[in-house]
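so im writing up the methods section and need the RNA-binding S4 domain-containing protein record in one place, dumping it here so i stop losing it
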Amino acid sequence: MSEKLRLDKYLWAIRVFKTRTQATAACDEGKVKLNGASVKPARPVALGDRYDIKTPARKWTIEVTGLLQNRGSYEVAIQNYVDLTSEEDLKMNQQMASSFFTGKRLSKTGRPTKKQRRDLNEFMGGDEAPEDL
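--- predicted struct ---
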């Protein structure tokens, strides 16, 4: 393929980063490396290139097997690279994943639920909303 493809666009297209802006920022911050050297986001991608990528969620080592111009489904994206991440990094990725916030609110912290607000209003003797709306 003779067309040039920017590195940040490629990383976005294969779904390593959620946005091109994040891919560009990672390249600028030195979190994407080719043969141990940081690369710029506008660098052209070639077949056979091996990149070491560090994201907040995990570390990747990928080899380019195909060029993908536009972002597609996950099934299409994984056909355009080979994941060469070492066993050591995979274990670290699993440990990091288990320590991340799951999205569930911890008990008795933050805003009360609707039921907790109703119970509190009833306890405090406050005005309650009419039951039949």
